[in-house]
Amino acid sequence: MFSYRHAFHAGNHADVLKHTTLVAILQYLVQKDAALTVIDTHAGAGLYRLDGDYAEKSGESADGIHRLIQAVKSPPAPVRKGADAGKSIASGVAPALQAYLDLVAGFNTGSGPVTVYPGSPFVVERMLRPQDRLKLYELHPTDGRTLEGNIAQLDAGRQIAVLREDGFEAVRKFLPPPSRRALLLCDPSYELKSDYARVLDLVAEGLKRFATGTYAIWYPVIARPEAHDLPRRLRTMANQAGKGWLHASLMLKSSKVTSAAVAADGVAKRPGLPGSGMFVVNPPFTLKAALAEALPQMVEALGQDRNAAFTLEAGG
């Protein structure tokens, strides 16, 4: 249960999608004066060193945030597919993508490479206003202690709470909030097959307790029936509840293991995560347009083979 450490994956292409979407959602929600409660069900350590042992061992940030930054500095030749391919990075970075890059840059100094990467807790914290509240859940003993230490440096007082509890139970504790405005982010590791069912239960319970809240769910695109079914079942749930929804996915390479991915000893090497998705219930009305500009540029910058593509759909 505690084998997953996000430090190995910080700044990868899944974080680019997740945090670009998170920033775009928050940009809209903080426009209203009323207080906002943000709940992060699987907060991790909060801050990550991309030049540390964990990140360097996996090297995933090289195909994520670092590759995106390089593409913005030296745009690649765009490969366009279809009428909705979007505007190339060379002609201007999409506003949602630029807002994400600016936020990450704010955690680093000078013009050198990005070495500090903010996880979701610090992405949210950077955008909070004095009247807002942030609830962070983390069960991993090491990451929980690290998160507490990182948050303590902010001297945020009661504005930010770190809870060493099961984040799937968050809806029962904090929803609905007094201000009647909330965003819940759920991005478990999905190492346990039961996580998929628990995500569905969490959203169902959340909509029952607080139907107008915004629920943002990240999931991996992997060859597992539960992963394939999750966005479909979330869409059905949202439609049955009469709620708007948005589904965005980013696929950067084939999910198949080819002969090139076989080591000298004949054992297939792990191909890495080929893609991921975000499903948002009660999304801001501005989110679809923001991602429609950003997703083609993510494919352009981060795509690893001819299978790179994105999907974007909304309903309700």
Written description of the protein model:
- Helix content is 37%, strand content 17%.
- The chain is of the alpha/beta class.
- It contains ten helices and ten strands.
- The model is unreliable at 257-269 (pLDDT under 50).
- Helix 1 (13-29) crosses helix 4 and helix 1 packs parallel to helix 5 (120-127).
User: How would a crystallographer describe the biggest sheet?
Assistant: 8 strands, mixed
Strand segment count: 10
Order of helices and strands: HEEHHHEHEHEHEHEHEEHE
Instruction: Summarize model confidence as the mean pLDDT.
Output: 90
| Low-pLDDT ranges | 257-269
In short:
The protein is of the alpha/beta class. It has ten helices and ten strands.
Features:
single chain, 316 residues, alpha/beta
Write the layout of secondary structure elements.
Elements: H1 13-29, E1 37-40, E2 47-49, H2 53-58, H3 65-73, H4 95-105, E3 116-118, H5 120-127, E4 133-137, H6 141-152, E5 160-163, H7 170-174, E6 182-186, H8 194-209, E7 214-221, H9 225-241, E8 245-251, E9 275-281, H10 287-302, E10 309-315
Parallel strand pairs: 1-4, 1-6, 4-5, 6-7
Antiparallel strand pairs: 2-3, 7-9, 8-9, 8-10
Helix pairs in contact: 1-4, 1-5, 1-10, 3-10, 8-9
